[in-house]
Design goal:
The chain is α/β, with parallel strands linked by helices. It has 2 domains: 137 residues, NAD(P)-binding Rossmann-like Domain (Rossmann fold, 3-Layer(aba) Sandwich); 160 residues, L-2-Hydroxyisocaproate Dehydrogenase, Chain A, domain 2. Helix content is 40%, strand content 19%. The strands form 4 sheets. Strands 3-2-1-4-5-6 form a 6-stranded parallel beta sheet, sandwiched between helices. A 3-stranded antiparallel beta sheet has the order 7-10-11. A 3-stranded antiparallel beta sheet has the order 12-13-14. A hairpin with a 7-residue loop joins β8 and β9. The radius of gyration is 19 Å and the shape is globular.
């Protein structure tokens, strides 16, 4: 698709508004449709963003009813209750699952791609896909794409390198059971564990920093929004332009994954059809066991809200 793609965003709070501005700056959307349960909030965001139109690639911004967003090439779901300080993503489950279960059937027959951002994103990706009946590849959660970005930034800081020179991934839940794939991490084609001065004792400390990053931000300012806005805009760009990128995003896993009926993050090829192919990365025995445990934690949460 071209830069004239239409993107809808449902939920214009901290996250939705950050997704909106990042999407406009990316140039992927020729039209941006904003919806919120508080209509005045969506209207105000549309007005505010439109006033800055001289400073991003040409695009029209409107507030819209949910039905109007269904003509968009992609719709981002950022609606829901935000996490509180000290609260895990899974503790948000009941309220936000009810909201998603109510919203999803309205997307039955929708032909575009749905991107879930609302937490707990893995469980809600599963709930939305099942309740909407859309193909699994077209219901994509941002998943551990943000955790992977955090990991690369932290490793770049530790190594004194640009984060884009680091190739490392986080898989599994976007949350407390996430798994850092240390065994396959590389820098410039060199295994991280062979990097001069690297010590294995650093891994647990840095993994914990990645895992708790959102909690630290929420404790200080009440929400995380800028990085996830950038992550979501990039994901939209890769899909709407059919770039066939390999990135860690969440989707309901195929039966061949061996992980059961669950949505979680693994490397996927993302493009015009959504998260079209799931890849199995190299993992050592411990990482494989931890990924299975992450899948089981998510499966229990899905059962808890009656989505299986």
């Amino acid at each position: 698709m071209t830069a004239a793609a239409c993107v809808g965003i449902i939920g214009t709070g901290w996250v939705g508004s950050s997704v909106a501005i990042s999407t406009l700056h990316s140039g992927v959307a020729g039209e941006l449709l904003l919806h919120d349960a508080r209509a005045s909030s969506a209207e105000a965001e549309a007005m505010d963003l439109s006033h800055g139109s001289s400073f991003y690639p040409a695009a029209k911004v409107h507030s819209a009813a949910i039905e109007d967003t269904l003509r968009a090439d992609a719709v981002v779901i950022a609606a829901g209750r935000a996490g509180k300080a000290g609260q895990s993503r899974l503790e948000l489950l009941r309220d936000n699952a009810a909201l998603i279960r109510e919203l999803a059937p309205r997307f039955a027959g929708y032909r575009g791609i749905v991107v879930l951002v609302t937490n707990p994103v893995d469980v809600l990706t599963h709930v939305f896909q099942r309740a909407s009946g859309l193909p699994p590849e077209r219901v994509v959660g941002t998943g551990t794409l943000l955790d992977t970005a955090r990991l690369r930034q932290i490793l770049g800081r530790e190594l004194g390198l640009d984060a884009r020179s680091v190739h490392a991934q986080v898989v599994g839940e976007h949350g407390d059971s996430e798994v850092v794939l240390w065994s396959s991490a590389t820098v410039g084609g060199i295994a991280l564990r062979d990097w001069p001065g690297w010590q294995g004792s650093q891994e647990a400390v840095l993994a914990e920093e990645v895992r708790t990053a959102a909690y630290e931000i929420i404790k200080r300012k009440g929400a995380t929004n800028h990085a996830i806005g950038l992550v979501t805009a990039a994901l939209l760009r890769w899909m709407l332009r059919g770039e066939s990128r390999v990135v860690t995003v969440s989707r309901v896993q195929p039966a061949t994954s061996g992980l059961g009926d669950v949505a979680l993050s693994l490397p996927c090829i993302v493009g015009a059809g959504g998260a079209v192919s799931v890849l199995t990365p190299a993992m050592d025995a411990d990482e494989q066991a931890r990924l299975r445990r992450s899948a089981e934690i998510l499966r229990k949460a899905i059962v808890e809200v009656g989505a299986i």
